[in-house]
Amino acid sequence: MSNKYPFSDIILNLSDNFDDLLESLSTLQRLGELPAHRLTEQVLLENALEILHHSIKATRCCIYTLPPQELTLLENAPLGSVLAIDCEGIPKQCNATRIEDMFIRTTLEKGTMQDCDDCTTLDLGSDLLENETSIISVPLMVTEQLCGVITTSHSGRQHFNAWGYRLVELFSTFLGQQLALCRCQNQA
After folding, report:
1. Which of 15, 22, 98, 126 has its CA 20 to 30 A from that of 73?
2. Domain residue limits at 29
3. Is 23 contained in some domain?
4. In this entry, which stretches build a coiled coil (predicted)?
């Protein structure tokens, strides 16, 4: 059956892409407007996490930062806590979920984005999948040095579209710049 109005699908697609672009730009603008030079690192990360969680409409977002003066996580070393936000909307220090732990470690090891549209296909066992079915983990770089990982997940399969992936990567880059400014000001 042919579409009676072939351009209607194209216009709807353009409209959706335009909406995603505006949402992404708005998210990056809000992150850029944070006064990083006047905030502690903890407060900056909490504010950034709230912005990302609201924008990407994830089930959970977390930020893991490497301990000071460490460039990588030693194999089998405990991950420690992450700063996380979930459906309650309040950033808090807590342990990473098991799948977050796995994706954070892989992102730290490889230094590149790690993702999965459907974690049920990873043959990890149902006990490992808590609320994450779709997950994206991106490295957090400060002055070209890996300092942590941003992870966002959703309970639905294939939740994140192409704009979601781009947004998380750009968000990480912008947050890295904000963290560099924050750390520079706090050292002075």
Report:
1. 126
2. 6-187
3. yes
4. none
